[in-house]
Amino acid sequence: MLQKTFFTSLCALICLGMYLCFISNNFKILGETKNKFIFKMQPTFSWSASVFFGGLALASILFSLTISPLTILNCTHSYSKLSTYQANFNTNCELTAFSWLGKEQSKIIIPELQEAILEAKLDNKDSKSLFERYRVVIVSVEKNIPLINSYIYSDEPEYQNLLNIMSQINSFLDHFSKDTLTIYEEYEKLLGYTGFAIGAFFGLVTFLILVLTPSITCSFERELNLVTIERCNLFGKKIIENKTSDITAVKVEDASEESTYRLVLMLSSGEKLPLTYFFTSGWKEKQQMANRLQNFLEIKNLGVV
């Protein structure tokens, strides 16, 4: 129940973070005078992507941490003397789950073990067979306890191990010549490794998005006849300069077959000088900025490329 609540809250946090990034302004005005206009282009799309992938990475790692990589079943025979000629034999067990650090995560006392059975779970993967996945369940006088939480397909190599475990437990119950039985189960360790690998992958994607996405600052200075586009990321800085007098229009360029856009400066040479290399959604906001730049530069020819 706690895990379900946690992951629900985590999903809600991811959605909230993405929503806040999407509604935030792409443009931040740093300074505006009669002859100077400076603004910063905030990578809200990259922020949203990093929140999403970072949330997936965190969820995958936390999911793996909830998995017990090692489960040990210890069973012992015991008997109590009822009379001179009669004794009562019982089999008691302890099911202990360990964390990735080797610490005891949980322990379940199983009194008076009755048998081990194979529990089947309905699965629609193959319409020819209704019961596709299985797990070993330990039956006691009080309740049924699964050896591991995961179900295994009958065509998996681990399925044969399940049958062997069930056979060992039932054989131990039938023969009192052996005092103790210890079974080590590590099936869920692979699932945990998979979760860690997925988390590491999404973590790397998040890191690359954050370090490779540039911070873009645009400066228009009419007195100096200079426009400066500065792109900075973790690996360095790139500065592009041009004359404001060479700008014939500021337009919103539309990506082909996609509802994504970017701002471009149209130059007198016929070339385009994009303020960003990538296209993002939000035509209205970009068009408003194009209009604002056009008014500042006192040029016309508004429109979408």
Question: What descriptive keywords fit this protein?
Answer:
37% strand; 305 residues; 5 helices; alpha+beta
Question: What this model shows, in words?
Answer:
The chain folds into three domains: 13-43 and 214-297, PH-domain like (Roll), CATH 2.30.29; 44-69 and 191-209, no CATH class; 70-185, no CATH class. The protein has helices spanning 2-23, 44-66, 157-174, 187-212, 283-297; strands spanning 27-32, 36-41, 70-81, 87-98, 104-110, 113-122, 131-140, 144-146, 152-153, 180-185, 215-221, 226-233, 236-242, 247-254, 261-267, 272-274. The mean pLDDT is 83. It is built from five helices and 16 strands. It is α+β, with helices and mostly antiparallel strands. The two termini are 54 Å apart.
